[in-house]
Write a structure and sequence with these properties.
alpha+beta, 161 residues
Length: 161
């Protein structure tokens, strides 16, 4: 894996590939360190498809999941950001949502095509009419961060529950 750097926005991992360790005997592999993908969805990068992303996450987690409401809200904010602020919102663009189950948490990743002019930023203007998506993520998620690479941007959050 690549280097991890702490930032005001959380952790940013750069470089490297994410892979599961397959050469470690199962009995010695800590369960908490092995995330399980429970669902993924790729949608066209259009604001009208944000509702589809919300519905997908709600179905994937289920009504009784303790983090369902917060996860759906945060996912909605991140997908909206991806469509509005990245090239995923241009014709032919897509956004992918990946849901991972951890031992005591859920992790949601929103993957877009990136932007040449910006990176994810938490805006501090409380009275601004927009720009509160990442502020909500920062306030509600147990942790969050983003990964920038040649393909695009992955913004993720983790909720314990």
């Amino acid at each position: 894996m690549g280097a991890t750097t702490s930032t005001a926005a959380g952790s940013m991992r750069t470089g490297g590939r994410r892979t599961a360790a397959t050469d470690t005997p199962q009995a010695t592999t800590p369960t908490a360190s092995v995330p399980v993908i429970v669902g993924s969805l790729t949608i066209a990068g259009r604001t009208k498809n944000v509702a589809e992303a919300r519905a997908f996450l709600g179905r994937t987690l289920g009504e009784t999941h303790p983090c369902a409401d917060e996860a759906v809200l945060l996912c909605s904010e991140l997908v909206t950001n991806a469509v509005v602020h990245t090239t995923s919102g241009q014709p032919g663009g897509t956004v992918t949502i990946v849901v991972l189950r951890l031992t005591d948490a859920v992790r949601v990743e929103v993957i877009d095509h990136g932007s040449a002019s910006s990176t994810p930023v938490v805006k501090g203007e409380a009275l601004a009419s927009d720009g509160h998506g990442l502020f909500l993520v920062e306030q509600l998620a147990d942790s969050w961060g983003y990964v920038l690479d040649q393909v695009g941007t992955t913004v993720w959050f983790r909720l314990t529950g």
